[in-house]
Amino acid sequence: MPKTYDQAYYDKWYRSAGHAVRSPAELTRKVAMVLGQAEFYLGRPVRNVLDVGCGEAPWRAVLRRLRPGIAYQGLEASEYAVARYGRSRNIGYARFGQLAELRFDTRFDLIVCTDVLHYLKPAEIRAGLTGISDMAEGIAFLEVFAREDDPAGDREGFFGRPAKWYRGEFANVGLMPVGSQCYASPRLARSVASLERL
Question: Cα-flanking dihedrals φ and ψ of residue 145, to 5°?
Fold first, then answer.
């Protein structure tokens, strides 16, 4: 039976004191770090963000607090999240693999995809990564847990692939690691010094 990302799922993993794995303070630090990375390489403030697999869009409020006026577009495959928050939080329905064909009127200064890829099969990951590489103007923050990690949280449907596998797939689409799970887009390759590359 496939996993259902309904309200009960989000209540358990994002709001329950016994299961929630991130605090609001931790999320704020993470968003600030990722914005800093993107703006360092872009040489200007981040103007727009694509948040893939955004769930209920917790990044949106933090991004808007740190960068008032930032344009946010969320994408999510949970029918519950899109039905409940799609209009108010600008979340559209899409699966990760659909990024191979899905395009917008602009590229994105920052693309975020947290806690998604380690639940997907290789073909869907490869398809979606082509879209991320094509749509990224600046940085892609691809937060993934690998076989070598011991992440807290939802382990149902988790694929424990080696970190080397993910690095290879990201490199295949031109995404360059610059630290803390941030990857420079192919358009930024000339802006990344040799010793900044991991």
Answer: -105, 135
pLDDT tens per residue across span 74-84: 999 999 999 99
* pLDDT tens readout for residues 96-120: 999 999 999 999 999 999 999 999 9
CA dist list (Å): 35 to 20, 154, 177: 24, 26, 16
Q: What is d(CA 77, CA 79) in angstroms, rounded to the nearest whole number? A: 6
Answer whether 0.85 is exceeded by the pTM: yes
* Alpha-carbon gap, residue 55 to 115, rounded angstroms: 10
Angle at the Cα of 127 from the Cα atoms of 108 and 38, rounded to 5 degrees: 25
Place of tokens 């990344």: 192
Pairing of strands 176-179, 108-114: unpaired
How many whole angstroms separate alpha carbon 16 and alpha carbon 97?
30
Tell me the domains of the chain and their CATH numbers: 7-196 (3.40.50.150)
